[in-house]
C-alpha cells in the first residue's frame, strides 16, 4: 500500500462515524501521516435562494457550524486524536470534502461506505460522489451492512 502523508477523514456523526475515524487513525499512525477531521454542515441558506427568502437575521449556517465544531472536538477527544486538525465547512458534503482535500494537500480521503444518505445504495451518495471527483486515493470504509 502507498505511504500516505496527509489523511482527511469525513464524518457525518452517524453511528458508524467512530469506526470510520478509527480506520483513518490506524492508517495515519502506520504512515506517520497528518490526520484531518472534517464535518460538512449540509444546511445552507443558498438552498432557499429561490422563492422563499430567509430572514436576514436567521443565521442558521453559523449556529449549526458552531454546534458541529463542538461535536467534532468531543469526538476527537473521545477517540484520543485531539491533536488532529479539525474543520467544519458549510455546503454540499461531497464537494466540500473534495475541495478541502485539495486545499490541505490530502493524499487519502477516508469516508464511510454509507452514512445518512445511502443505506439502500451500494455506496452512499456522498461516498460515491467523493470517489468520482477526488484527485487523490479514496478509502470507503465498509459500514452499516
Ligand atoms: P453517504 O454517502 O452520505 O451515505 O455517507 C457516506 C460517508 O460520507 C459518511 O460515512 C461520511 O464519511 C461521509 N459524509 C456524508 N455526509 C457527510 C457530512 N455532512 N460531512 C462529512 N462527511 C460526510
Q: Key features?
A:
about 140 residues; alpha/beta; Rossmann fold; five-stranded parallel β-sheet; globular; binds adenosine monophosphate
Précis, in short:
The protein has 145 residues and is of the alpha/beta class. Helices cover 38% and strands 20% of the residues.
3D structure, described in words:
- The chain has a single domain, classed as Rossmann fold.
- Strands 3-2-1-4-5 form a 5-stranded parallel sheet, with helices on both faces.
- The chain has 4 helices and 5 strands, in the order E-H-E-H-E-H-E-H-E.
- It has 145 residues and is an alpha/beta fold.
- The longest helix is centred in the middle third of the chain and has 19 residues, at 60-78.
- Strand 4, helix 4 and strand 5 (137-141) form a beta-alpha-beta unit.
- It has helices at 17-31, 60-78, 93-104, 125-133, and strands at residues 6-10, 34-41, 85-90, 108-112, 137-141.
- The model has no long low-confidence stretch (mean pLDDT 88).
- Residues 10-12, 20, 38-40, 42, 93, 111-112, 114-118, 124-127 line the site of adenosine monophosphate (AMP).
The total domain count is 1
Helix content: 25-40%
First-to-last CA distance: 25 Å
- The CATH level-2 architecture is identified as 3-Layer(aba) Sandwich
Instruction: Catalogue the ligands.
Output: adenosine monophosphate
Task: Specify the number of helices.
Answer: 4
Order of helices and strands: EHEHEHEHE
Estimated radius of gyration: 15 Å
Assign the structural class, choosing from mainly alpha, mainly beta, alpha/beta, alpha+beta, or little secondary structure. Answer: alpha/beta
Proportion of beta-strand residues: 15-25%
What is the average per-residue confidence, as pLDDT, rounded to a whole number? 88
The strand line-up of the biggest sheet is 3-2-1-4-5
Instruction: Please give the number of β-strands.
Output: 5
Q: Could you say which overall geometry the principal axes of the C-alpha atoms support? A: globular
CATH class: Alpha Beta
Amino acid at each position: 500500500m502507498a505511504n500516505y502523508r496527509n489523511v482527511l477523514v469525513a464524518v457525518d456523526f452517524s453511528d458508524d462515524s467512530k469506526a470510520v475515524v478509527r480506520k483513518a487513525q490506524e492508517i495515519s499512525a502506520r504512515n506517520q501521516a497528518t490526520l484531518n477531521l472534517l464535518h460538512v454542515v449540509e444546511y445552507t441558506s443558498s438552498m432557499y435562494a429561490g422563492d422563499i427568502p430567509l430572514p436576514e437575521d436567521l443565521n442558521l449556517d453559523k449556529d449549526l457550524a458552531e454546534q458541529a465544531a463542538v461535536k467534532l472536538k468531543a469526538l476527537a477527544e473521545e477517540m484520543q486524536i485531539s491533536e488532529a486538525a479539525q474543520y467544519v465547512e458549510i455546503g454540499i458534503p461531497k464537494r466540500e470534502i473534495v475541495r478541502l482535500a485539495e486545499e490541505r494537500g490530502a493524499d487519502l480521503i477516508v469516508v464511510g461506505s454509507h452514512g445518512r444518505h445511502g443505506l439502500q445504495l451500494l455506496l452512499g451518495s456522498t461516498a460515491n460522489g467523493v470517489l468520482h471527483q477526488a484527485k487523490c486515493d479514496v478509502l470507503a470504509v465498509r459500514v452499516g451492512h
